[in-house]
């Protein structure tokens, strides 16, 4: 498998984490390099990461890549995607992704000197992140979302999102005890440590 992406991307990190945990070899093409970016743009019309090539399959969405991995390689020790929990977990992942996308937008705008109060749309985005994080806190039971105590796609999404927010200092994540405990509980995992942004 050939995975295109950057070391710092939380969406790419989710795929790297899954591959490491499931023992799936992959080649990472660093899209932060000129050659990696050129190759990505030649192959993927979205110019987005992660992008996966394997055999004759080409996938340019992290959720579809995850589906491909689970269908073709199995889910290993992870909570399977299907089951009674499917819709709740899908909602959790959608919410987490929305918070992450808005945080990424704020991060890049801030680098350009544009603050959230520069426009009503940006202010709404910042407030949306807060609303989602409050929802996540209500849904999180200890260090998991479900009583099975397994790590599933929602926990993977949350860990990669919170750790990216902490790494980029986008939001004061470390002021929230629940999130700090979650990060500290899952963080010692070897694959999370190996995929940590730097």
Automatic annotation (TrEMBL):
Gene3D superfamilies for the chain: 1.20.1050.10, Glutaredoxin
Alphabetic keyword roster: Transferase
Top-level lineage group: Bacteria
Residues in GST N-terminal domain copies: 1-77
UniProt-recorded Gene Ontology molecular function terms: transferase activity
The keyword Transferase is annotated on this UniProt entry: yes
Protein name stated in the entry: Glutathione S-transferase family protein
Organism from which the protein derives: Leptospira kemamanensis
């Amino acid at each position: 498998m050939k995975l295109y992406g950057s070391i710092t991307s939380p969406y790419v990190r989710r795929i790297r984490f899954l591959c490491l945990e499931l023992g799936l070899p992959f080649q990472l093409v660093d899209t932060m390099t000129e050659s990696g970016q050129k190759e990505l743009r030649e192959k993927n019309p979205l110019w987005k990461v992660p992008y996966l090539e394997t055999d004759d399959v080409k996938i340019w969405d992290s959720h579809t890549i995850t589906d491909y991995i689970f269908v073709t390689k199995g889910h290993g020790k992870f909570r399977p995607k299907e089951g009674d929990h499917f819709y709740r977990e899908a909602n959790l992942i959608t919410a987490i992704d929305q918070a992450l996308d808005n945080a990424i937008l704020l991060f890049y705008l801030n680098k350009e000197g544009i603050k959230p109060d520069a426009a009503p749309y940006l202010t709404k985005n910042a407030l949306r992140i807060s609303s989602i994080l409050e929802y996540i806190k209500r849904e999180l039971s200890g260090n998991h979302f479900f009583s099975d105590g397994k790590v599933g796609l929602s926990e993977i999404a949350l860990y990669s999102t919170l750790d990216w927010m902490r790494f980029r200092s986008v939001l004061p994540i470390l002021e929230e005890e629940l999130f700090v405990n979650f990060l500290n509980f899952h963080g010692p995992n070897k694959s999370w440590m190996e995929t940590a942004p730097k």
